[in-house]
Structure prediction request, 402 residues.
Amino acid sequence: MKFLRNFLDSQQDRFEKGGRFEKLYALYEMIDTFLYSPGEVTKESSHVRDSLDLKRLMITVVIALVPCILFSMYNTGLQANVALNEMGVSASGWRSVIIDFLGSGYDAQSIWSNVVHGALYFLPLLILTYVVGGFWESLFAIVRGHEINEGFLVTGILFPLILPPNIPFWQAALGITFGIVVGKELFGGVGKNFLNPALTGRAFLFFAYPAQISGDAVWVAADGFSGATPLSLAASSGVEAMESSFSWMDAFLGFIPGSIGETSALACLIGAVILIASGIASWRIMISVLIGAFGLAFIFNSIGSTTNYMFAMTPAWHLVLGGFAFGLVFMATDPVSAAMTQTGQWIYGILIGFMVILVRVVNPAFPEGMMLAILFGNVWAPVIDYYVVKANIKRREQRNGE
Prediction:
């Protein structure tokens, strides 16, 4: 790799101030720092130093996402193969050509067949997200003269994982554009955005194109097949009807229809262990979300309802269905859009947990709720931190005045 290091060093003058490609310095810096650690050191007074920089932080999050990524491809292919076998047909379009070329087939009992088929839905969305989102990130960095932040490395993976497998490519491109431009860059970029960009993009798609982001037909990657998710089945037919079609263990492991990467609570749990052990994500937020959600779900269980089936859904079921586990681990804990203070994180998490159950139960027409709950928490996070800090200052002033 010495040749590559020497080549990058030889090109640096072209991209620095006064160079021929000065305006493209952000692109050069992105490639250089992605491949190698920065060579610059602090020359002024000493600073507090930490072995964890933004690049290592984002890479750790990506590592924590690996279980979700691998299982997403397997389960997406599994659901598609089962559906195609039921209908007695094969995949259509370019995917069928690749499957025939690889000889992987549509065997739902084959791990290889399921992974290949699922990858043909996830990987194109991932590439599309990085190309389109990377374009906007680079454009804003060049115009502002800023560095291209590593935060998009995670956003680019999170976004396709929270989409249904059958979403049209042009809508995915439009969604990540809205998430990056409106959800982040218009507020000044990384560190200044108060909304999670990936969730902002998905929320835009949900309200702009509800037919392609909701409904029974979008959750299984098979043309012409309609299959309800457990949450929608519980909301429309009751928890007992849902339990007759899906077991709790299937939902925990992730063998159910849903967004590409959100179905496996187990994969999310593995990611949570990695993020908490590495100190990347706040365990306070995770626990407080559970407290808020489980508390309100228990209250609704106790009240009961003869007209609203969702009142009967237990806290254990809420945990493993929809995007609850994925949002709990990877979205609610976003260090930029979440609360910063320790006390604020408890309040923020409880608020999100409370809101997701409120949306799921009281508004069964929208049985998910996690996306809106986290975005609602994002909006209130700065206010929560403001009053927590203000209260701390007031207590210190009172102690000093005694």
About this structure: DSSP finds 18 helices and no strands in the chain.
